[in-house]
Every structure is written in structure tokens, then in C-alpha cells.
Amino acid sequence: MKIDIVKKNIILGVDIGGSHITSALVDVTSGQIIEGSWKRERIDSQSGAEAIIAAWCTVMQDSLLCAEHSGKIAIAMPGPFDYTKGISYMKGMGKFDALYEQNVRALILGRLSKVASEVYFINDAGCFLQGEITHGEASKYKKVMGFTIGTGFGSASGNEGVATDADYWQYPFLGGICEDFFSSKWFVSKYVEYSGKLVINVKDLIENADNANPLFQIFDEFSINLGTFLARIFKDHHFECVVLGGNISKASPLFLPQLQYHLKVRSMAVPIIISKKGENAALIGAACSI
């Protein structure tokens, strides 16, 4: 009987990205990743449907064979996607065009029927925050906002332990939209504007920093913009804390003190939590969502 209970609590969490897939078995009672089950591989999102599904399933099967489990798979999937029916509607987005109008659930189960029985799909933006409010520092708060800042700008709202996509990437901001200001392309373009030098990405910008370049000026400007945005949406949502994830959050020493100062000036006593779970938050959040 004990073995059955353990198996029931072990769910495969999967994070599908435009260039990668990550999967791991998750103990949903503790939020822990089962040792040895974490797998990650690059994916050619421009290839055919059969090749994409085969690549995904190879990674998922590798994880599933690591320990006893419930047979359930929870996938954090970008949109547009019919999460209930399991049908992809991504087209013209530079990824997974070959899966357009395909029943992705049926395709996955067709390959993994010997090791899995159920496949669930959850919006990827909500999964990050779900992982944080279920088994992270944000679990003690009722109203939480979560943002992933990286190649794009992901956002989610958490209320009473349930996270949903907030869709703030397209929110009007400073004459554009949020994604124009809170993503790696903004940092790269600002660096070029201020220094006249090209960098590949934010990691490259930080690693090649010296006293003569505008790194600190750029992060100061970023903190002002983020503080302005948070103050604006706080008027409507009155959230109790903010969780930041994504690759740019790893550079928090360069912007967090300034951000906290700008919020304090605006009388916003809201704690800012930098995710310690990293990309595992989406895996945990997906598994805990079903």
C-alpha cells in the first residue's frame, strides 16, 4: 500500500521551450526532484512533427525510467495551445509550426503508452509561479505576482495558492509594451546604444563588464522601469509579494537594491523574492497543477 501512495505522488514535470525540453520526476508532496531523473536536451523546433515528438518523448522516457511513478505527465507548454484538448495552435512564431492543429497529447501517448497513461498541458507562464507558491518562499502569501525575465517577459498571478497566466508581456508601457523593456533584447539594444559595442546576450554583457562600460547605468534604468511598472499594477492588484525568475533575475545584485529603493519611495512595502528553484520551478509547478 505504501508503494502505491508513493507512486501516486510522483508525477513527471516537463518544460517545453522553443529550443529545449527539460523533464524530471517530481514528488508533489514535497516539491522535490527525484534524484537522477532530471534531463534536458536541445530541440530543433523547426523540424517535422514526427522528429519533434520523437525528441520530446526520448527525454521524457529517460526521466520516467528512473523511478516508480504515477504514469502522469504534466507539461508546461507555451501558447497558443488548447490545453484541455492537447492541440497546438502555434504558427508563424518561429517554433513548432509542424505541430499546428496536431493532437499533441495523442502523439505523445502513442509513443509513451508503455510508461505513461495520462498527459496534461498547462500554460508555461503559470507553471513557474505555481512551483514557487506551492513549494517556495512565496507559499506564505495569498496574493503573489511572478515574472520571468529572459528572452521574453513571462508573467503570472497567484491567488490563494493557484497561479494563472497574467499576460503582461503585451501590457502598454512607456510608449511600447512590457516585453520591449523587460527582456534580454532591451539590455542588448541599450548596451549598443550607450557603448557602441555589440554583445550577444545579457550574460555576455555582464561577463565582459569593466568600469568603462555602461553596465551599471543600464541596470539602474532597468530597475527604475520595473519599479514604475510594479507600482502601476499594484494599484489594481494589491499583491503581497513579487517573485522574479528567468536568466536576468540571476543578476539581481545589479538591480535588486535599486528596485527595492524605488518601491520604498512609492510606499510599496512589497518583498521581492528571487527564485532559488530556477528552471525547476516550472517542472514542479506543472506537476503540482494536476
TrEMBL record:
SUPFAM superfamilies given in the database record: Actin-like ATPase domain
Domain of life assignment: Bacteria
Family annotation (InterPro entries): ATPase_NBD, ROK
UniProt-listed PANTHER family: BIFUNCTIONAL UDP-N-ACETYLGLUCOSAMINE 2-EPIMERASE_N-ACETYLMANNOSAMINE KINASE, ROK (REPRESSOR, ORF, KINASE) FAMILY
Family: Belongs to the ROK (NagC/XylR) family.
Protein name per the record: ROK family protein
Biological classification of the source: Bacteria, Pseudomonadati, Bacteroidota, Sphingobacteriia, Sphingobacteriales
